[in-house]
Amino acid sequence: MKNFSKIFIITFLMAFLIGSVSAQDTADSQPDGFLYIPGGSFLMGSPESENWRIDDEVQHEVTVLPFYIDAYETTREEYERLMGTDPATFSGENLPVENISWLDAVKFANAKSLDAGLTPVYTVTDGTVSWDRSADGYRLPTEAEWEYACRAGTVTPFNAEKSLDAEEANFYGHYPYEIEENYFDNSVLEARPGKYRQTTIAVGSFSPNKWGLYDCHGNVNEWCWDYYGVYDLENTADPTGPETGTRHVYRGGGWNDFAKNMRSAYRAAGQTDMKSFNLGVRLVRNAGNDRSGVITASDTDLQAQTGNRILIAFFSWSGNTRRIAQEIQHQTGADIIEIAPIHPYSSDYNTVLMEAQRDQHDKARPELANHVAHMEDYDVILIGYPNWWASIPMPIATFLEEYDFSGKRIIPFCSHGGGRFGQSITAIAKLAPNSDIGEGLSIHYSGGSGMADDVTAWLTANGLR
Predict the structure, then answer these.
(1) Nearest-CA neighbor of 313 among 398, 417, 246?
(2) What distance in Å separates the CA atoms of residue 29 and residue 263, rounded to the nearest whole number?
(3) Does this model's pTM top 0.90?
(4) 105-114, 288-297, 301-310, 382-391 — which is least confidently predicted?
């Protein structure tokens, strides 16, 4: 009851604060169309009762200072105008830019600042990015600012206060929130299965949240400033995340994500140089002179091992991933091990669907039947798996937690039925935080006649041929 009262008070105060800022005030002060977000406190993270909650979403009260935020995700046109290149996978008018790294997003923010006659926020040197918090230019949101703006005063899994369907957000619409445990009877769901567009769509195609922001859920994930790590529950005043790390946070989910991974509290993480067809950016600016000091982001040294001593480790249920692994071994001559649980999953497809979602939901760690005797002998781990419910099968989680991958290079490959990697790479990044993750390979089912060529191109891209 006490927690409910606290949530009610915070929600009431947020509504009051928003009501005190007129549209005329924000229009006059921000000719670039960015929205004014008043400072305030909110409950960041998710309650333990939230379905499909991850352990890193510990709920805690956070206070943020006022800031301005773009109502839309950055578009391809704007990125190309300022950076001279269009890295996006998809072509079309007013689509969000994607396939940009965290460092690309930082450099874009500086370019936008210079274009607008503002002071650039970031100083970029080899391996280091320094953030002048007092500068008036454009920047990446902190993780707290992003969630605060996304929620817009809500405390539910999504900022629409109910589960989203494919007519309200661009995601893998076949898999709305809580479909996993209700796959064979979705009549109980708030949102029913809908369209899967398999591409980004024009920004602003759906209704905005209560504060006027579009596409906080779906379309593309959005980079944040913060390194990924456990929440600091003591320093909660305008937090900027851990001082060091190996991954940066991105939020919101993308066009190929399941709804559970679009929740306001869901945290994804990737390396500074990670690029993806569903990962873009939305910029913010300071509102006032309340911030000061310089924060430096310098990736923790992964002490990467040298050499190409390769191990292929894979889990397969239907045989699709096994065939890919065997082709990789044929082309590399690498050692190979099949990751197999002591208690195998059912051979019946419908049954294994329920077993797989149950294990994910329970964060199970199935005991494995076989093990790598000398993991220290390997520099590169090619880890394969089927995309199960938009993530890794839980035997892969057991495998990743069994060994020390510090300094090793992990290169994922997966078989899938349409969702490509889902959020499986983020799962690997979290479970093996001191590894270097290479460019992944996703194969539709068994890959057909072109699979061998796809494997060759992938190995070449990762410098393994």
Answers:
(1) 398
(2) 31
(3) yes
(4) 301-310
How far apart are the C-alpha atoms of 263 and 253, rounded to whole Å?
A: 8
Flag whether pLDDT at 315 surpasses 70.
yes
Tokens of 262: 């679009």
Residue 372: name the closest of 318, 326, 310 by CA: 310
Q: What percent of the chain has pLDDT over 90?
A: 89
How many Å separate Cα 452 from the centre of its chain? Answer: 29
Residue 221 dihedral angles phi and psi, to the nearest 5°:
-65, 160
Is residue 171 helix, strand or coil? coil
- pLDDT exceeds cutoff 70 at 252: yes
Shared-domain flag, residues 346 and 270: no
Domain carrying residue 332: 310-461
Among residues 17, 56, 81, the alpha carbon closest in space to that of 287 is found at: 17
Q: Are 315 and 265 within one domain?
A: no
Closest Cα to residue 143, out of 51, 261, 252? 252
- Shared domain for 46 and 182, answered yes or no, is yes
What phi and psi values does residue 136 have, to the nearest 5 degrees?
-95, 5
**Domain identity same for 161 and 275:** yes
